[in-house]
Specification:
Order of helices and strands: HHHHHHHHHH
Strand content: under 5%
Largest sheet: none
Number of domains: 1
CATH topology: Hypothetical protein af1432
Low-confidence stretches: none
Mean pLDDT: 94
Number of helices: 10
Length: 175
């Protein structure tokens, strides 16, 4: 069975997320983070053999994954994972409520992914490892984790062969 294309939805959400960050966040940092996570997510998903529909869906999740940060900062004074996940899930549900190009199951999945995107057990259970790994990679590059923790993060949080290969090349190879 051929799946419908998600490209128009993905493109529209990329634009909406970018505009949202321009209006509600330290825009440049949030936009660059989201673009990087989306690019690594796509790379890992393709490497893991995801079809176009799966890849587009998980890339949509990557574009949406941190949209709870601005509301979390306003409500709690920070964007700690639990706060951004909770606020992000609510926003995804609101944004996608009338989206006709996604199935009801895809909308629920996207909200659940955004609502648990820092949680390793959820990455495994909900099958969003490419996004989880991409966010981990970008967070390490951006200094949210110390580089001396790179091996431990690799050993305990990297799931896919593609993600592991990319992570090792970026952080674990010795000159």
């Amino acid at each position: 069975m051929e799946m419908h294309t998600l490209t128009p939805i993905k493109n529209a959400l990329e634009q909406k997320v970018t505009e949202y960050y321009i209006n509600n966040a330290p825009a440049i940092e949030q936009i660059l983070h989201t673009q990087s996570v989306a690019a690594y997510t796509r790379l890992i998903a393709y490497g893991e053999g995801c079809d176009q529909h799966q890849t587009d869906l998980i890339e949509i999740a990557a574009w949406l994954h941190d949209i709870g940060c601005p509301n979390a900062r306003k409500l709690y004074g920070n964007s700690l994972p639990a706060h951004q996940e909770s606020e992000g899930k609510k926003l995804v549900e609101e944004w996608l409520k009338n989206e006709t190009g996604l199935t009801a199951e895809e909308k629920v999945w996207l909200a659940d992914v955004v609502g648990t995107h820092h949680q390793y057990p959820s990455a495994v259970k909900l099958h969003f490892s490419p996004l989880f790994e991409a966010d981990l990679i970008v967070n390490l590059v951006e200094g949210y984790y110390k580089m001396d923790k790179a091996q431990h993060l690799f050993d305990t949080m990297m799931i896919t062969p593609t993600g592991k290969k990319l992570y090792a090349a970026l952080f674990l190879t010795k000159e």
